[in-house]
Amino acid sequence: MPSLAIVRTSNASWKPSYPPVGVFVGGPSGIGEGIVEAFARHTKGNAHILIKAPTPELTREFFECDLSLIANAKRTAAAIVARFPRVSFVFMTAGYVSSNPLDITSEGVDSRVAAMYYSKWALMHGLLPALRAAKAAGEDARVAVHTAGRGVPIDLDNLGLGKCLDSGMSGMRAMIAQIASYQDLMAEVRTTLAPRRIAPPLNEIGGVQSFAERNPEISFTHRFPGLVDTPLLHKSPSTMFRAIAKLVTQCGECQLYALLQAKPGASRTGENGDDVRLGGKDDAHWEEGKQALWAHTEKIVSEI
Fold this sequence. Notes:
11 helices; oxidoreductase; Rossmann fold; alpha/beta; Sec_Metab_Biosynth_Oxidored
């Protein structure tokens, strides 16, 4: 587990020879805010940051995207790729917390599951051409998704999590654990099939390989950032949680470090950027779960 001093020293040594394009999904506050600030600080502002207002020399732009609708995620990814044919960094930190009953959108899925999973899947798929182009140009190609290390075996009888979301707070807790595994299975390398270096169109993907398996030259990390002093945590009734939460700036440094250190392929990291190994341990149905979930997700996203 690296110390914060090592993390900061390593990040300070990062000097990209090109202005990287960073896409921050959920960066206006909290964990995403810390990562945006660290990214801007260590590139000395010499980067395109897709979250804020534009400036003449470099882009600081906010793309409005309500992730509760998958169609919005698909449109946003297409708009970004049209503007920036090469994208080097994608950080997905957006969350959605609500104790309300099942909230089915016009697309036929619960708004929380859409925001935390389906829309992230759609964004990742839509940005792949730009990530591959960046790698081909000798630039970084790195993706980070948050919520690692807290998953459970996939409930194959409840894909889409409708049963969880109609069961109050106990169902909400079950949903969060399932979402963590959904995001593991979305990115991790778990099968023995030979990877394909070019991902096919969405309607040809099928349900047997993850994003990392299909794009072995790109780094996909799934992370657990730990307790962070965010606006969401301020609403927690636990004074202990609020007391031990790390600062947003500290979290940003650790999470940037984890992504910069990640090797091509899939990995999972903890709150200090340390490797916590891939998921699926002691889960005899990991492969079955991944294939069923991928096929289910492909169907949902491709039909919108």
